[in-house]
Write a structure and sequence with these properties.
The protein has 406 residues and is α/β, with parallel strands linked by helices. The chain has helices spanning 37-46, 79-91, 93-96, 117-127, 209-213, 229-246, 252-261, 271-274, 281-286, and strands at residues 2-5, 18-23, 65-69, 100-103, 131-135, 156-162, 173-174, 193-196, 200-203, 218-219, 223-226, 307-309, 329-331. The chain has one domain (2-303, 344-372): Rossmann fold, CATH 3.40.50.200. Strands 1, 2, 3, 4, 5, 6, 7 and 8 form an eight-stranded mixed beta sheet that branches. Helix 1 links the parallel strand 2 and strand 3. Helix 1 (37-46) packs parallel to helix 6 (229-246), helix 2 packs parallel to helix 4 and helix 6 (229-246) crosses helix 7. Residues 311-349 and 353-406 have low confidence and may be disordered.
């Protein structure tokens, strides 16, 4: 398991399992996390609970970890460093048995995945045999806010739900920050699935920027609480490691099929919001063979402002019984916010920046109900609309996020 992030502190929770890594920031220590994000992510993937007496374990506490450090104490990186990190993972995949790569980061794309350099790099990693898990982003809940590389059709893109600190899934709700699809400008159906991302507890990196900046979020001496799709992606990467432990021969496509094909119903049942549904790690690890055929060959770039069809020939909507979507199209444009020109971004791109001081210390979670029973108080249950088009130039935040619209 490789983690492209801010480094992973060499904590007791990872004893004997930090098997390698590289520091691309010039600090020459992939096991020093000056920002605090990478250690938190790695703890959710594979911490064994040593720092908390076994109270807080990661999803796959036996997984080996490889640290690919791409950012230092300011939490900033750039496109070229990320691509170098992906190239390093591919070059060293056999030496460290890298089968899964977690990328809890992203930027708002302005060009098609067919030409986006970061998307092209993650596709190369996927085709080399590495399953890439990416966070959807914290730019939601409006449509068209999926970040790159989570916008890539091959990768496993994960959004965040609020599990309300309860073991039953019936009470789960979507968070108000989780990015929603379809992707812009291509119109891919994303995210792929969702899992817990609100007020999750993992490992702290004492002395790091995040640790020093948010004292109320500390839990004891070794743990921390945070919110973001970064952490949903990390939990999913841990689940993917469990699936591979049970069936080591799976290809990235087959691994993705197992994760998506065994999900539980999502909180809203809208593929642009909660994808195929909520992660069910046990079901994925114990399921039989499942097939998924993915290819990006032959795809052509989609320009901002172009009309994108959700027919099977034009998108990955066939994952969602495309007969229900026949003929639907709408004008696409770049999502709000400044364009990213490949230079260093301002730190907001790390999809776990929404650090919350709330902990799992009560059962109520007051105020967690998000705008009533449905996303906007109504549902899209009108008459047939196939063949129509959304001709409005702006559609973010509109009623597509209702719980029922099919």
């Amino acid at each position: 398991m490789a983690v492209i992030d801010t480094g992973i502190d060499n904590l007791p929770d990872f004893a004997g399992r930090l098997i390698g890594g590289v520091d691309l920031t010039g600090e020459n220590n992939p096991f020093q996390d000056d920002y605090g994000h990478g250690t938190f992510v790695a703890g959710l993937i594979g911490g064994d609970g040593a720092s908390s007496g076994g109270e807080y374990e990661g999803e796959a506490p036996g997984a080996d970890l490889v640290s690919i450090k791409v950012a230092d104490a300011d939490g900033m990186t750039d496109l070229s460093t990320l691509i170098l990190g992906l190239q390093w993972a591919v070059a060293n995949r056999l030496a460290y048995n890298i089968r899964i790569l977690n990328m809890s980061l992203g930027f708002q794309p302005f060009e098609s995945t067919t030409v986006n350099p970061l998307d092209q790099a993650v596709q190369a990693a996927w085709n080399s045999g590495i399953a890439v898990v990416a966070s959807a982003g914290n730019a939601g809940p409006s449509n068209g806010t999926i970040l790159s590389p989570g916008d890539d059709p091959l990768v496993i893109t994960v959004g965040a739900l609020d599990d309300m600190a309860q073991p039953v899934v019936a009470d789960d709700e979507m968070t108000d920050f989780s990015s929603a699809g379809p992707t812009s400008p291509d119109g891919w159906v994303k995210p792929d699935l969702v899992t817990s991302g609100r007020s999750v507890v993992s490992l702290a990196a004492p002395g790091s920027t995040v640790y020093d900046g948010y004292p109320p979020a500390r839990i004891g001496s070794g743990n921390f609480v945070g919110s973001g799709t970064s952490f949903s992606a990390a939990i999913t990467s841990g689940a993917a490691a469990l699936v591979l432990a049970a069936d080591p021969g799976l290809t990235p496509d087959e691994l993705k099929a197992r994760l998506l094909g065994t999900t539980s119903p999502g909180p809203v049942g809208n593929p642009f919001v909660d994808g195929h549904g909520a992660l069910n790690a046990y079901a994925a690890a114990t399921a039989g063979p499942m097939n998924l055929s993915q290819s990006v060959l032959g795809l052509v770039p989609t320009l901002p402002g172009a009309t994108v069809s959700l027919s099977p020939a034009g998108s990955n909507a066939d994952s969602w019984n495309a007969s229900l979507w026949s003929g639907v199209a709408w004008p696409q444009g770049p999502a709000g916010g400044p364009a990213w020109n490949g230079s260093a971004w301002d730190g907001s791109a790390w999809n776990g920046f929404t650090w919350s001081s709330r902990a799992w210390n009560d059962g109520g979670w007051g105020g967690a109900d998000w705008n009533g029973q449905t996303w906007d108080g109504s549902a899209w249950d009108g008459s047939a609309w196939d063949g129509s088009a959304w001709n409005s130039a702006a559609w973010a935040g509109s009623a597509w996020n209702a719980s029922e619209w099919n």
